[in-house]
Design brief:
- With about 100 residues, this protein is an alpha+beta fold.
- The protein has a single domain, classed as Ribosomal protein L7/L12, C-terminal domain/Adaptor protein ClpS (Ribosomal Protein L30, Chain: A, 2-Layer Sandwich).
- Helices cover about 45% and strands about 20% of the residues.
- The chain is built from three helices and three strands.
- It has a three-stranded antiparallel sheet.
- The longest helix is centred in the C-terminal third of the chain and has 17 residues.
Amino acid sequence: MEKIKARPKNEKKLKEPCDYRVILLNDNYTTRDFVVEVLRIVFHKDELEANRLMMDVHRKGKGVVGQYPFDIARTKVDQVHNLARQAEFPLRCIIEEV
């Protein structure tokens, strides 16, 4: 029978990566319909949830639209900015560590 070796005391434990919130920022130029489409395309929200989030961002000036590991959050931000640029809207979003 093979003995199970104990982990050496100096071996570091791996910790879970931090999550990041993607926060959509309100502006006075981007249409509500475009924001809903972005929420559906980039964040895979259904129509009802996308409209609720859009109104939340509109009323409060910003709103959390998702929580992801850093690389995914960064990709989502880039996708939003690219779609907004193509449609000539100033829609922006940011990420912050949870």
